[in-house]
Amino acid sequence: MNSDVTIRRMILADVESVFQIQESLGFEHWPLSEFEEELLRPYIFAFSLEVVENGEKKIAGYAVFSLAADEVELLAIAVVRTWQHRGMAQKLFDFGITVLLRVGAKKVFLEVRRGNTPAISLYQKLGFLQIGVRKKYYDDKEDALLMSLSLGTGA
Q: What is the arithmetic mean of pLDDT over 108-136?
């Protein structure tokens, strides 16, 4: 990995930057206080993509996973536009999955808006398969595609 790029566990001090990323990309998000509370839960695994630009460290992406038994839900993954198309989302995902495999994860699930073709393409590249549809799932009545990925050979 580039020496100017680090992936690490997310800390509370990263949350404001994460919210700025969400807003810049037009993402729906939890209230700030709820997000901070979620980070403290033992089943939440959140990671920050920290980059150095012009000599300053900044958060350029993040991934949030939830673990229940051996199943993981990818709750969110995003990279700021200036760092997109450089493999950073895949690096974030791979880093998170490496950590989650160590604690027994066997399968990953996610929901994605039917119209979010860039995200769907990323998930397919990562090996996810569509397993269902939640009709009119989002507030604006857009469908959610359900996708899953088996981890390792025993899943």
A: 95
- Could you list the beta-strand ranges (E) of the chain: 5-9, 44-53, 56-68, 71-79, 107-113, 129-134, 144-150
Number of H helices, E strands in the chain: 4, 7
pLDDT tier at 54, thresholds 50, 70, 90:
confident
pTM of the model: 0.91
Query: DSSP assignment, residue 14?
Result: G
User: Hunting for tokens 């604006």 — which residue is that?
Assistant: 140
Going by C-alpha positions, the residue among 108, 92, 109 that lies closest to residue 144 is 109
Q: Is 74 exposed, middle or buried (0-12, 13-18, 19+ CB in 10 A)?
A: buried
In three-state secondary structure terms, 122 is: helix
Residue 99 has what DSSP assignment?
Answer: H
Q: Give the length of the chain.
A: 155
